[in-house]
């Protein structure tokens, strides 16, 4: 079987790895970085940017730059998490046709699987660049606490990207694979994974290549982004106190605050205080410019986020209890995710587990490496790695009276299946509705609805006579399928709960096709030579246009004179940059030149 | 895995009490053990077992780890690998050794004696031949065994032993090992095997669930007293246990005989006889008694011991002609012609038509 790559599709950064001659390795992107920002943007000229390039232009294009889209994937429009996100998001979030969430960029609506597919495609390109052949298969990781809808949406993203996701595995489990791969071990470990957007804790037993997850839990809305948000709030509050202005209402100011907060947070992992300096953050109507200049100490930062740290530790306690293990049974605590670089978090972990956390895996790379290890194991079928993962949520159906009947308990080893026989409750009831839910509440309505379907045409009979068998299956990906069968007639009805990913099958097919078109477009500008050719074309276009206009309209207004000078400058710069060999730089020149010429043309035409 | 010197010669450790072994070797390992005679080198053993090099080496390593084998070669006396392994064994007796092979010795039917469905076996699928057999073999017995038997542990097993049994099975039957491969009729079997394995482990690794399960086992044992052989109930503890004991006895017997043969081939009659006697205590095997008696008789120096084995054979079967003849010959050797004649005559009574006996009697009468 062909090689299978591993992709860590992270909230803030993504990473791709592959096993080569027995060793998992991260594949760096074109810029030489091992991780790529999970950011995508649409420029004014309609160009799609991904990764570092998208992140760099975020300040000037905040409204059309998508950060941390993973926090929204597989969520319902009405969910509290989406409500919360609406308040702080710089990009526009709108309601989709299936109770789902869409992101609106330059008048086009993108579903969340689509946004993820764009990131996945970028990771696929990075791998292809390195491997030469076409890696169309991948193991992709998701937070362990992702539910069925979120997992399905991630699978859809792979399909749209033209990437065969052969398996979805949990991020902490992947980190454990990276830790224990190829080692003769017999240990119990806790994986503490605090990433950009989510928190997961998993307890595993590892023995000579067998990875047995005892229990897992987490919070899909607790991560680095929330730590940043606390700093942003703090800075915005200070500024509002001094100037009576809410910076968060200004897109560009908010994006600058975001960048500054992330930078300050990172610096405070190694320093005791940091300067935050944002000159010209706001311009008053009077033309007076306001600056933000302040110092943030580590103590203050810790005070701002202590409840977040405690939330994570609380989840650890519950998970450990669920695993049947004691704190003293844990041989190693492994930290994963960029946020675990924060000293206060390391201290809290140490206090709770009573031992210093191990730093034997790279917090940013372990997950992708582990995914690659699983990919290699699946492709060669060897038993060097045997993964026994669990489902994080209880699964069941709604029964008469609104109760929740659990069929598969949380932390059951997957793949698994279970069937149960239910009977009708009413006189002459000829159809039953199966409402499938995931969650831990005994009250059906408090759990996550995965889907519902009806089995009709049952025989008319007194209550309790007609029997219906409902079988649940959870695949190794953690994805649920349900089947109901009328035991008398053998009539069946089954669902794979796909509607909740927010896309219908038809929509996905359309997107796959659209994406094929896009691939053609993307390939055009992929090499340095192609970028140069495109810049030369634009220069020629400008020169032709400018010379025509020179003759036709000698008296330009001052504004267009200024604009002309500005455009000429852009053209001059572009000419110089042609000597440059850097693809990213050329692409960005191409983009800015395109914009400059567009606005020049429209000004001239108006004038 | 330890790297062995191909030219080293493994030797058996003597007087090992099999009932106290930390882990019961698998049938495969017992088989390898039976080939060890203190003369064959590792390279030769790999050739004679027919299991292939890798499996033979794994078996040897495991046998060494549980203390059944001595691996002496010119270089390894101070080898850190081996000394570390034995040290670990001696300081942490509570820690069961980490076996990677499933233990099928608790299953009612032996792998050797299992009647395979040739039709399924012939299916063209992307599974290793040996694994195909194991899948069919274990799957066929799933409904007849309890969780302990499946995991290859006894009822008193510790959590760690249970876990080791579970992990060994998952190394064989986890569906990921057959990912996107052509599986034919094996697919559903693999699925069921895995599910049952998980269920067994989830039950036995959880103290409360295990206690409840033990309770139901005890109940089903008392409700189906002796006829459980034919019963359709999922658990047949009694049958399982007898089969188990039987199996173990067979294996110990084979090992003792092989050891004794080793001593005999080196002319160490005293030790050889000691081991042969132990073997016969475990199992009253007529053929063995006769064979030993004959060998001792041919050696000419061990007449006394030869008497013991020949008499033992005669006790096992009163009308055993071969035993009578050996005894007759022995009496003849020591000059007790009357006694010799008496034994030959009795043999003749049993088999009047045998000319060779007639001849012996005539020779003696001359």
Q: Assign the structural class of chain B, choosing from mainly alpha, mainly beta, alpha/beta, alpha+beta, or little secondary structure.
A: mainly alpha
Radius of gyration of chain A (CA) equals 27 Å
Please give the oligomerization state of what you see. heterodimer
Helix content of chain B: 55-70%
Number of helices of chain B: 17
Low-pLDDT sequence parts of chain A: 519-524, 551-555
**Approximately what portion of the residues of chain B adopt beta-strand conformation?**
under 5%
Describe this structure in words.
The complex is a heterodimer of chains A (607) and B (366). Chain A is α+β, with helices and mostly antiparallel strands. In chain A, strands 1, 2, 3, 4, 11 and 12 form a 6-stranded mixed sheet that branches. Chain A has a 5-stranded mixed sheet with strand order 18-13-14-15-19, sandwiched between helices. A 4-stranded antiparallel sheet of chain A has the order 21-20-23-24, with no helix packed on it. In chain A, strand 11, helix 4 (148-160) and strand 12 form a beta-alpha-beta unit. Chain A starts with a strand and ends with a helix. Chain B is mainly α and 366 residues long. Chain B has a two-stranded antiparallel sheet with strand order 1-2. In chain B, helix 12 runs antiparallel to helix 13 (286-299) and helix 15 packs antiparallel against helix 16 (337-350). Chain B is elongated, with a radius of gyration of 25 Å. Chain B starts with 8 loop residues before the first strand and ends with a helix. The interface between A and B is medium-sized, with 25 and 22 residues.
What are the key terms here?
A: 607 residues; alpha+beta; six-stranded mixed beta sheet; 14 helices; B: 366 residues; mainly alpha; two-stranded antiparallel ribbon; 2 strands; elongated
Concise synopsis of the structure shown:
With 607 residues, chain A is of the alpha+beta class. Helices cover 39% and strands 27% of the residues of chain A.
